[in-house]
User: Which sequence fits this backbone?
């Protein structure tokens, strides 16, 4: 009698189905549409328009610049905060961390409207600053959490060993704490940079001005406002996806090169 | 140079460390001679690691002072002490390779440059400092690696090394700085037995080659006896005994030390006079004197000091029966039951289980110790008409209207008036079993109450360590005296439920 072999991998089948249905199939649609012209035939025109039209490149550059500023801002604010929070003498119960991470559980649109009313209240005019600050506010917890995790998991005996070997507090930070928090920095940067480079809602809500029109807005408008430009929208989305993949790949290379173990995201 | 070699390098004076109300190190004093291999030995949680961490500078004593070469270093941070540590779990830097781990301290170190500069204002001539050059660092790292038998491992990733190799790197990293004192915190704890034996021998030869003072922390008594010049036995935050391994083994100062160091038979006895002691209903010759007549004492008999003879052979003082016999490679370990006590006996000639024997003890094999405590003493207060607070609970006593509620009193409870209950709720207060010592016919047990005071009691039953128990005290056994504050006020500060140790525990052997 043939025995029914039941492998553990069979349990993965539903997830595989989900993956195919909601990731692979839409990606294929996207790719097909990206190469489909207005007449329904095969074309490279959608991609060509990205590189020939000055507008698309400029908008993308702006998106990357704002994403970069946001990431840098989050890191600059988040690193010292994480450093303070990871000190068990100051943060005795982890309640402080909770307070910082709490906004993550509130819908980001709500948070965006909240910061918008703050800008209105102080009558802020600089559109760039508004969008960047709103993004830093929205994405800050995504930077803080991986940084905090990496720092809290740092073996205390390592810092003790460093000071035992003659390092003062600053040298201990420079030679031990900082290098060992790099995995946290990398995953924090990715967690913030990747969503901000493709976001469109924040800039639309807090600014809505042409000078803060982002690549995400452009793609959104192809699909939404100017109905029917699915081919262009798909091509631009595909380009963005590729760029994000490249960023990820580079970040992974960087993390592996350091061989730093836990704290990494991917 | 002999004088120089044997002066005190570390002196610990009355050091106490309290962590959130728990006294981990209690008024310890100890001095360590230059070049010595000193081992701090005790069970886990006894305070030995905390003491080491205070020497290293990671913890600051709550009170007391620590001196290094006659300089008070109590408040000096670790990076400014000429002391280096080998950590229990190695604590190698995972982002650095072997070379850079070892060079870590060398790159930071400043040494006299041999050049002098004169201060323009004061005219003072001082020697300038410089860093080690690259070549010097390379040379030193290579020498240190050679010393720990890891030559050629410079470029290796520390994460790819085995436990033993990582430990060697950790040792190299600490000794490369040529510290005045090397601290080792259970450095071999994570290694397997064979590796541990090898490293023990290597550490001893490193100690010999370098001449640095080693302070070594372990809970492994065999390791302590093998490696050290001097062993410091610690329990409950207090030094129990300090001495050479041989002295500690042959002449333990109290029941704890006897029980902790090596296999031993621990009994209760009565001193008959000089060189005479009675236990198990017989009088034995011994080599100890100076105890008062009829004094109740603890005594220890090492398993190898007992001789077994055939029953009815006319030799031997106690009759017994072998209940088990196990061959241990070099000798036999046997359990011999007499009506009063089960003796552990080691001998090169084995006897079979069930054999009737007569048992004799060599006079030199009997070592008499003062009893650790016979009454528990508390400074506490009367909480009701006829109740008094002990260990956080209210116990009844015979008041006769003598004491008022709230009055500060001294309460004494003899060991045999306390009983334990299986069910915690049957006792007045609850507690956890700590150490227990078999004293022949009864056990002496230490119980930690929930408010962290400890009680000692004698019981016929055996209890397991860390068991939850209820505590009852016979109300006729509680004697209450008026509390008179001492002039220096120390007694008043010690507060509720403090166990006043007898003089023995406070006495530190000063070799």
Assistant:
């Amino acid at each position: 009698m043939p025995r029914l072999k039941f492998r553990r991998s069979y349990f993965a089948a539903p997830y595989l189905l989900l993956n195919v249905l909601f990731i692979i199939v839409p990606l294929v649609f996207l790719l097909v549409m990206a190469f489909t012209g207005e007449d329904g035939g095969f074309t490279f025109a959608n991609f060509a328009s990205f590189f020939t039209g000055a507008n698309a490149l400029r908008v993308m550059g702006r998106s990357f610049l704002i994403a970069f500023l946001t990431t840098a801002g989050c890191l600059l604010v988040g690193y010292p905060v994480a450093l303070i929070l990871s000190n068990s003498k100051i943060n005795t119960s982890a309640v402080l961390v909770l307070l910082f991470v709490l906004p993550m559980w509130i819908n980001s649109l709500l948070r965006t409207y909240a910061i918008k009313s703050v800008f209105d209240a102080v009558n802020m005019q600089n559109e760039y600053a508004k969008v960047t600050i709103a993004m830093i506010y929205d994405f800050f917890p995504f930077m803080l959490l991986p940084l905090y995790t990496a720092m809290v998991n740092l073996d205390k005996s390592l810092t003790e060993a460093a000071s035992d070997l003659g390092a003062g507090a600053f040298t201990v930070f420079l030679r031990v704490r900082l290098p060992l928090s790099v995995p946290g920095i990398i995953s924090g940067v990715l967690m913030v940079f990747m969503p901000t480079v493709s976001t469109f809602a924040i800039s639309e809500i807090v600014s809505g001005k042409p000078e803060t029109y982002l690549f995400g807005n452009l793609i959104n408008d192809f699909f939404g406002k100017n109905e029917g430009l699915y081919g262009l929208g798909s091509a631009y989305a595909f380009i963005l996806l590729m760029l994000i993949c490249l960023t990820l790949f580079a970040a992974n290379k960087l993390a592996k090169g350091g061989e730093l173990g836990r704290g990494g995201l991917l | 140079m002999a004088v120089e070699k044997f002066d005190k390098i570390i002196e610990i004076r009355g050091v106490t460390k309290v962590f959130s109300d728990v006294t981990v190190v209690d008024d310890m004093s100890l001095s360590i001679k230059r070049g010595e291999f000193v081992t701090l030995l005790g069970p886990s949680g006894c305070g030995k690691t905390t003491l080491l961490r205070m020497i290293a500078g990671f913890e600051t004593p709550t009170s007391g002072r620590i001196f290094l070469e006659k300089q008070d270093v109590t408040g000096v941070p670790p990076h400014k002490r000429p002391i280096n540590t080998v950590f229990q779990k190695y604590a190698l830097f995972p982002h650095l390779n072997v070379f850079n781990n070892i060079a870590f301290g060398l790159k930071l170190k400043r040494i006299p440059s041999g050049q002098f500069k004169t201060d323009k204002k004061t005219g003072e001539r001082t020697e300038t400092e410089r860093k080690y050059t690259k070549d010097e660092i390379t040379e030193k790292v290579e020498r240190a690696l050679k010393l720990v038998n890891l030559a050629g491992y410079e470029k290796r990733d520390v994460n790819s090394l085995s436990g033993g190799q990582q430990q060697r790197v950790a040792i190299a990293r600490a000794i490369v700085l040529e510290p005045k004192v090397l601290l080792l915190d259970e450095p071999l704890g994570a290694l397997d037995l064979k590796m541990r034996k090898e490293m023990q021998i290597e550490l001893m030869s490193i100690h010999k080659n370098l001449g640095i003072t080693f302070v070594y922390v372990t809970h492994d008594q065999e390791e302590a006896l093998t490696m050290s010049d001097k062993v410091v036995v610690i329990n409950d935050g207090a030094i129990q005994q300090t001495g050479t391994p041989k002295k500690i083994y042959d002449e333990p100062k109290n029941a704890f030390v006897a029980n902790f160091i090596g296999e031993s038979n621990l009994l209760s006895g009565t001193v008959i006079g000089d060189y005479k002691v009675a236990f198990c209903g017989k009088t034995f010759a011994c080599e100890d004197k100076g105890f008062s007549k009829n004094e109740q004492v603890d005594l220890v008999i090492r398993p190898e000091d007992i001789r077994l003879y055939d029953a009815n052979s006319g030799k031997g003082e106690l009759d017994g029966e072998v209940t088990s016999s196990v061959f241990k490679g070099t000798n036999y370990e046997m359990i011999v039951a007499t009506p009063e006590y089960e003796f552990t006996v080691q001998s090169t000639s084995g006897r079979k289980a069930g054999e009737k024997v007569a048992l004799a003890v060599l006079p030199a094999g009997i070592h008499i110790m003062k009893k650790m405590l016979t009454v528990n003493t508390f400074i506490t207060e009367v909480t009701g008409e006829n109740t008094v607070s002990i260990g956080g609970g209210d116990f009844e006593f015979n008041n006769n209207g003598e004491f008022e509620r709230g009055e500060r009193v001294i309460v004494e409870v003899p060991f045999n008036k306390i009983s334990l209950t299986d069910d915690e709720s049957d006792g007045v207060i609850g507690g956890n079993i700590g150490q227990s010592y078999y004293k022949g016919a009864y056990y002496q047990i230490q119980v930690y109450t929930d408010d962290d005071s400890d009680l000692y009691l004698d019981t016929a039953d055996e209890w397991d360590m860390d068991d939850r128990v209820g505590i009852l005290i016979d109300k006729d056994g509680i004697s209450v005296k008026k509390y008179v504050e001492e002039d220096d006020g120390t007694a008043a500060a010690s507060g509720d439920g403090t166990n006043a140790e007898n003089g023995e525990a406070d006495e530190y052997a000063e070799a």
Notes: Chain A has twelve helices and no strands.
